[in-house]
Amino acid sequence: MSKGTARHTGGGLRLEDVGKRYRAGGPWVLRGVDLRLEPGTLARIEGANGGGKSTLLKLIAGVEAPSRGRLLPLTGGHGRPSTCYVPERFAPALPFDATGYLTHLGSVHGLRRREAARRAAHWLERLGLADQATVPLRHLSKGSCQKVAVTQALMAEPGLLVLDEAWTGLDEPSRTLLDDAVRERVAAGGIVVFVDHDPRRLAGEVTSRHAVRDGTVVPVAPVLPVEHEDTDAGKPAGRTALRVTIEVTAPEAELDAALHTVGAAGVVTRPAGGEARVELAAEHSDAVLRRLLGAAPSLHVRSVRETEAGPSGRAQRAGEGGSR
């Protein structure tokens, strides 16, 4: 925890019968959402791409207003917690350099400018971006812009931290740093709500899991390691392996290059329609996604989902062949 981090980060938050649609008479993206977020909660939100996860996070963060229902502080709390939000994509088309932008955002969060500048310098140093502190945002790479977006959230030490795929585009040290920062916020009594494609992200520390399905939000039971007896040649029992399947529209050469770059052994299939399906070990998924998303011209990643490979090595879609 950084020096001076407050232990009292505000109260909790509850969503009561919350719904969202983007035009009158239009389809409901979310409806009937009831969710309680207590101080000290680490909540993971899951669901299919385009199913409403980002909309739910924007509602929780206060970026979007609900079309129906209410967001209220928990009874007995200290009001709605201070909130910071890291979007899936950070738009760098702003007339600031990194330090100027972060100092301005710090002021918005109630910090004195000198303190905001100090915290900005601290986090930019930790994220390996100190040498680009005075570079205009529009000239920064996608990965560097994502570090700026993460910095503006961490330097405010919020009571509610909302992260929408915030790890995507970060290098390995920065992802580890963000993991640690999340733990610090929760340990300080804050609330962290996040979406991430890596099923292993903070898996042993998540206290609340919810899935967005058909416009509703439902609780998900924790995933426990499952032991399998391996009868081949007296081998010891093994655990179910976590794997990730990526569906992407990409030339064969680009996929091969992405896998080769990170040394990943992926299985590539091409169903009808010209798209590719890549199945690979979860530990390689971040690196492969960064390679695909950073391609020029950009590639269209349709979905990222967790799969399981049993002791036979045959992959199953999550939810098939057993409860999850």
TrEMBL record:
InterPro entries: AAA+_ATPase, ABC_transporter-like_ATP-bd, ABC_Transporter_VariousFunc, P-loop_NTPase. One of its GO terms (molecular function) is ATP binding. This is ABC-type Mn2+/Zn2+ transport system ATPase subunit. Residues 304-324 are annotated as: Disordered. Keywords: ATP-binding, Nucleotide-binding, Transport. It comes from the Bacteria. Residues 13-239 form the ABC transporter domain. The keyword Nucleotide-binding applies.
